[in-house]
Amino acid sequence: MTKDIKAQPAPEHLVSKFKLQTSKEVDFFLPINKGNAKVGHAKELNTETPKLFQPLEIIPGFTLSNRIGVSPMCTYSSPSTGSEIGNPTKFHQTHYGSFALRGSGLIIVESSAVAPNGRLSPEDAGIWNDEQAKAWKSIVQFAHSQGVKIGIQLGHGGRKASGIPPADHLQFGIDSSLGGWSDVKGAVVAPSALPFNPDPEVNLQGYVTPTALTTDQVKETVELFGAAAKRAYEIAGFDFVEIHGAHGYLINEFLSASSNKRTDQYGGSFENRIRFLLEIVDAVKSETHPTFLRISADELTPSDPDAWTIEDSVKLAHVLVQHGGVHVIDVSSGANNPHAERRPSHQGFQVPYAKALKAAVGDKIQIAAVGGFVDGEFANKVVENGEADIVLVGKSLLKNPGLPWVWADQLGVKINVGRPFEWPYYHPAWKF
């Protein structure tokens, strides 16, 4: 005869040990990670821990769990009209949440416009109003529930605004019949009235000739970046902002003598051409949050004597060290000249640019490398060799959001991941 077994109250020490606690960062039930462990942090740190999985302090009070970050990648998935124009949606929550659970040390969300006419396409995300900032908040909170640092890239498309998303057609400007604004007088702006691509055979109708910003409009645009950063911090709760100064967009257009033919204080000399950027740095800087800056280190157009080069970027890096306000330089290249040399696509193809800037700034500014990372050992060598401090990954993370976890296994490191995912891999009962 089977003896009845009656439930007994669990001992208090077991209740405190096993009762699931929910995260206070989100408004739904989400078990907190054991010991409030930060996702991406190595479970054991010692002198043998590969540098890729060692924490990195950017500023006091701001430390990354590891050196792997999600590179900002536009998804072109925000509403283009109505009261929710430019808002992130549930898609964005799912998209960025997948990275927050699986080992990335930081997340940089996609380029978000500081003004409606600064969107690259009608479907771009934005942060030019408070409602958009509020919509980002739940995404930020989820990342924080996993102990992951998350920031937003602030952008303005300049002469490359009002385009069709690259998923449909790369580098094709659109008018109001397709939701764009290229036919609205003065809506597409740039340092100078020079179109991105005047060759219709290369680019169909290409982009329209932009309207050159007046000096007062330049200053107003600086203020737009500052206001966007304030929303990012005070409403959305982001940990940092990244200034998008690359890929042929507005700031990049000011930097390059190829696209900047101004004769006022924002054009001509190197010092004048970088003025717009430096004023934006001052407008967005915070005492408690670091500022990231993405640049195109080289325009890849050696045939153009006015093109921005790696030598210009090194010179800019020295200026930024003296000027202050930038804590991480995110180093990419190209996209300001439609006739630029085609970039290679092998792993680490842009690391030499990061290496050059790292040699210039030393430890005074952290350097992030981008460009086709697929292998953990290769990525670790980049940081071990001092070529960069951070590795930012894009397409490979789209294919596998758990890539940092894969790299950790490859390098023999156990890292924290989201509690719902961790136990099948690390619980003793499942070791087979």
From TrEMBL:
InterPro entries: Aldolase_TIM (IPR013785), OxRdtase_FMN_N (IPR001155), YqjM-like (IPR044152). Gene3D superfamilies: Aldolase class I (3.20.20.70). It comes from the Eukaryota. It holds the Pfam family Oxidored_FMN. Its cofactor is FMN. Keywords: Flavoprotein, FMN, NADP, Oxidoreductase. Residues 51-404 form the NADH:flavin oxidoreductase/NADH oxidase N-terminal domain. Signal peptide: none annotated. GO terms for molecular function: FMN binding; NADP binding; NADPH dehydrogenase activity. This is NADH:flavin oxidoreductase/NADH oxidase N-terminal domain-containing protein.
